[in-house]
Structure formats: C-alpha cells, structure tokens
C-alpha cells in the first residue's frame, strides 16, 4: 500500500470524464461521498461538526439522518447514472445510521465500489461482514491507550475498538485495505510510535497522520512538530514493509500557507466528486459540506439524479469561482491544479510529446 491509494494521479484513469468536461457535457460524478447520519456515538473535542472552537466549524443537527426511502432512491440513482464509487462517512458515525446494513447490501448488489470512514465502535457482526468486501475501511483512531482515547473522544471504548480492528483485519477480503486516520493533537503526539507498533502487529495496512487544523494551526503545532516528525520516522523505519505502511500527511499539511489563495478559478473536481449529506442536501465537497455557500441543492423534494442534471445545477457550476469562494485549504488542491494545467493545454501541440 503506502501513498498510492491517496494519489492525485487517480483522476487520469477517468479519461471519459475528462473528455466529457472538455465537451461541456454533464455526466455523473465518478465518486460520491454519502454522510448518512449526523448521529454519533462519540464526542471528539475536535469534531468540526460539533464544536465551534476548531477551524472551519460546521455545526450540524445531530438528529438528522437520510430517510431510508430517500437512501434507496439515491442508491438506485447513482447506480443508474454510472457512479463508480461511494464512501460512507460523517457528519456523524456512518455505522450508527439506522439503515446501514440494507444500505451496504444495496451498494454491494449494485456493483459500486464502496468504503467507509468510521470510528470502529460498531465494526462487528453484519456490518463488518459487509465491509469485509469494501475497497477500503478507515478507522479514525488517535491514541495508543485508553486514557488518551478517552481524553480526546470522551468514551471508554478503546479496547473494544482495538478488538474490532483486529477481528476485522483477520476476516476482511484481501482486496479491502484497512487503514487508520490519526489526527495529531497536543494530547496524542506521544502515542504515534506505540500505535504504529500495535496496529502493524494486528494486520492494519497503513496509518495516515495529519495535523489537527485549528484557527492557528502553526502555533498549535509549534511545540510538538519536532517530536511528531521523529516518532513518524522511527515508526516508518521500524514497522514499514510486510503489508504495513505509513502515510505522512502531517509534514506536508504543516507546510501549507494558512492564508491560502487559490491560483485557479475553476474547480474541476466538482464534476468528479460530490457530497450527499444527512440533511438531504448535496454539496460541492467535504470542506463545503453543511455550509450554505457550499450547497448545490436540496434533494428532499426531488431525486439526486434530477438535481445533478438540472439546468440550475449546470448554471451554478458555470458560475462557481473557486478563487473567490474557496479561500481555504482544499483536499483536492493538487488534483484541481493538475486538471487546470491539463485543460489549459494548447491542443494544437499535443502530439509533439
Ligand atoms: S473547496 Fe476545493 S474541491 Fe471544494 S469546491 Fe472549492 S475548489 Fe472545489
């Protein structure tokens, strides 16, 4: 594994999509993120959906979930439209969604690639059986012991989750990649090496490290950066290989400019990817989810398919200007830069390779 699952270059396998964009043709998104519920069984102090102290807070209504009828309609639509992949994530905890089992069954039956980002607390039984055939499962886990875990997540379920991870690693299919998302904070940076040791020993395929984003990320991490880099390096030296890898997004993300200014106006990723959230609204991307300025439309009274292909959505996409509307860190920054370079090419010269 390693970094390739996160590679920006994946977009270039979707040549049909690229050609459709060139022809100004509206086609289905390649990849849809579904946030089935805002209900959660944990209480992380850094949750962007719950706390107004962290960077980019998007407080949500914790009671909201996509009604089962609507979920069935969404899955029928995305299968019919030719969407290739779907990830279930939060909002809340996707495995707490009231209809998660039939939802996963439907997606699997439709032959769509699927994955989940979960805290792992409910990763057992039928849920785990269905997810064993997912393309990937990522567990948000950011502590090497129960004390740190409780401090961050306000629940006493650390041992249960480690047991779930170990059992899942033993049962999952070979093509399902099991990863850990570790958000580095001032409370858990000393746990990095120990967690890598523990997880590499129980069949986890990789751990991705990224920094907690705050209103002043550089200042927040200044006192811990060196130790973080040292622990990641030592863990990589000692545990990488034999099916385990470390994905270090911490160092790269820490080097990003806080006063972020986009170099391009067109977000091409909005044609590839979209978010359907628990409030039955469709948003441009993760960062714009649950923000009024990120909303594409409301699917409580129409279907996803109708909304996606509507004239209003086409007009909204044409009008959207990333330079003025997205002046913050964007997970798709590199992909958008590559696509902007591609679409700016003078086709008259493309054969002179
Ligand atoms: S934040 Fe990034 S991906 Fe989202 S709409 Fe803006 S440019 Fe596109």
Brief overview:
By secondary structure, this protein is of the alpha/beta class. It contains 15 helices and ten strands. The model has no long low-confidence stretch (mean pLDDT 93).
Q: Overview of this structure, please?
A:
The chain has 15 helices and ten strands. The two termini are 31 Å apart. A ten-stranded mixed sheet has the order 7-6-5-4-3-2-1-8-9-10. The protein is of the alpha/beta class and 353 residues long. Helix content is 37%, strand content 14%. The mean pLDDT is 93. The longest helix is centred in the middle third of the chain and has 15 residues, at 225-239. Residues 267, 269-270, 284-285, 287-288, 322, 326, 330, 332, 336 line the site of iron/sulfur cluster (SF4).
Distance between termini?
Answer: 31 Å
Low-confidence stretches: none
**What is the percent of helical residues?**
25-40%
- DSSP strand (E) fraction? 5-15%
Helix-strand category: alpha/beta
What would the average pLDDT be, to the nearest integer? 93
Strand order of the largest sheet: 7-6-5-4-3-2-1-8-9-10
Which molecules are bound besides the chains? iron/sulfur cluster
Shape: globular
Based on CA atoms alone, the radius of gyration comes out at: 20 Å
Give the topology string: H per helix, E per strand: HEHEHEHEHHEHEHHEHHEEEHHHH
Task: Summarize the helices and strands and which ones pair or pack.
Blueprint (H helix, E strand, L loop, with lengths): L14 H8 L8 E4 L33 H14 L3 E4 L11 H11 L2 E6 L6 H7 L4 E5 L5 H8 L4 H14 L5 E8 L7 H9 L5 E6 L5 H6 L2 H15 L5 E4 L1 H5 L14 H4 E4 L4 E3 L11 E4 L5 H6 L1 H9 L2 H4 L7 H11 L10
Parallel strand pairs: 1-2, 1-8, 2-3, 3-4, 4-5, 5-6, 6-7
Antiparallel strand pairs: 8-9, 9-10
Helix pairs in contact: 2-3, 3-4, 7-9
The site of iron/sulfur cluster has 12 residues, from helix 11.
């Amino acid at each position: 594994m390693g970094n390739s699952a996160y590679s920006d270059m994946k977009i270039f396998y979707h040549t049909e999509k690229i050609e459709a964009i060139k022809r100004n043709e509206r086609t289905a998104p390649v990849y849809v993120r579904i946030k089935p519920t805002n209900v959660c069984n944990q209480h992380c102090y850094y949750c962007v959906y719950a706390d107004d102290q962290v960077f980019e807070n998007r407080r949500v209504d914790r009671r909201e979930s996509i009604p089962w009828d609507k979920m069935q309609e969404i899955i029928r639509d995305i299968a019919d439209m030719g969407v290739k992949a779907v990830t279930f994530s939060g909002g809340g905890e996707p495995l707490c969604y009231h209809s998660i089992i039939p939802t996963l069954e439907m997606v699997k039956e439709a032959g769509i690639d699927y994955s989940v980002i979960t805290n792992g607390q409910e990763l057992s039984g039928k849920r785990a059986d269905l997810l064993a055939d997912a393309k990937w499962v990522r567990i948000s886990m950011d502590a090497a012991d129960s004390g740190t875990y409780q401090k961050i997540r306000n629940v006493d379920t650390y041992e249960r989750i480690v047991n779930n991870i170990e059992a899942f690693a033993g049962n999952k299919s070979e093509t399902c990649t099991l990863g850990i998302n570790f958000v580095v904070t001032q409370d858990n940076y000393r746990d990095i090496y120990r967690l890598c040791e523990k997880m590499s020993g129980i069949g986890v395929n990789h751990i991705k490290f990224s920094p907690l984003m705050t209103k002043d990320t550089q200042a927040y991490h200044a006192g811990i950066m060196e130790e973080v880099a040292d622990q990641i390096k030592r863990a990589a030296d000692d545990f990488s290989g034999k099916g385990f890898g470390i994905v270090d997004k911490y160092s790269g993300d820490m080097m990003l400019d806080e006063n972020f200014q986009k170099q391009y106006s067109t977000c091409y990723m909005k044609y590839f990817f979209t978010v359907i959230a628990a409030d039955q609204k469709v948003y441009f991307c993760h960062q714009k989810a649950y923000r009024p300025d990120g909303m594409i439309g409301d699917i409580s009274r129409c279907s996803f398919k109708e909304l996606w292909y509507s004239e209003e959505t086409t007009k909204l996409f044409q009008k959207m200007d990333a330079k003025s509307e997205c002046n913050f860190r964007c997970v798709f920054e590199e992909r958008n830069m590559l696509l902007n370079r591609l679409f700016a090419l003078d086709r008259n010269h493309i054969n002179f390779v």
